[in-house]
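Thread: Newbie trying to understand structure tokens

Hi all, I'm a second-year student working on a class project, and my supervisor (Dr. K.) asked me to get a predicted structure for one chain before our next meeting. I've only ever worked with sequences, so writing a 3D structure as a token string is new to me. If someone could post the tokens and maybe explain what I'm looking at, I'd be very grateful. Here's the chain:
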Amino acid sequence: MYPLSFSEFMSAMGKERFAELLEKQDFDMATAFKQEYIEHLKYYYYVGGMPEVVKNFTAHKDFKEAREIQQRILDAYEQDFSKHAPNEIVPRIRMIWNSIPAQLTKESKKFIYGIIKEGARAKDYELALMWLSDCGLVHKVQRVTAPHIPLKAYEDLKAFKLFVLDVGLLSCMVQLNQTVLLSGNELFKEFKGALTEQYVLQQLKTLKNLATYYWTNDRGSAEMDFLVDNGTDVIPIEVKAETNLKAKSLKTYCEKFKPNKAIRTSMSDYRQEEWLLNLPLWAVETLNK
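---
Reply by user tm_fold:
Sure, no problem. This is what the structure looks like when written as tokens:
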């Protein structure tokens, strides 16, 4: 079972009619209420979608209690490492798990084994990584060498990004303070977009039959945050944490591969152009429509 999606979180918060607007793709009406969506998106970045945390937060609106429950969940995961994983890989599981926030705050979010431990090699951590992935505690997003159908055929097995299962747990791991919520859109600038990319990936994971990858050129000078394969097209998705829509990587990608459609998700309003869909972050779940 996945954590609650953003629209499910809004429904739990008593904002069912706003979730319904997204379901109906009524972007004219939704945009009129965008401050409601933005406010609850901030809550979601902090609270996340873990059912116990959401249940408590909807009842008490207490950020401190939400953090305490999240920390308890994280502690339980740490205990599970020792209880259920083979003893010889437990230390490596912990090292991978604890490195994820640092991995995601890099400009390039490609997983680097050297961040875990100097001189660390992939083969030494393969079993630990597989255990975390099989347990559903992390999402592994593989790089592709070329954005062609089917994407799986172009996987680069040596390069990937690693996300945790829930944005609220990630914000707990990095000890995001609730006061950040009160300072305009500062929250969306924190950690170089780490929370935003985690959030977007988490929403993509709630959509059925949608495999998610990412692309970089061979020099690593251009990156497309996510690619999805709908069976007939490869659709690039660029993630922007704010309203700044300068998109050098998206431009590079589109000039090179000429996709039929591209998606940019940010804090800007919904706007459909000839080949580019500007999708607000709070509406990422509508992508499968």
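A couple of things are worth pointing out once you decode it. Residues 6-288 form one domain. The chain has twelve helices and eight strands. Feel free to ask follow-ups in this thread.
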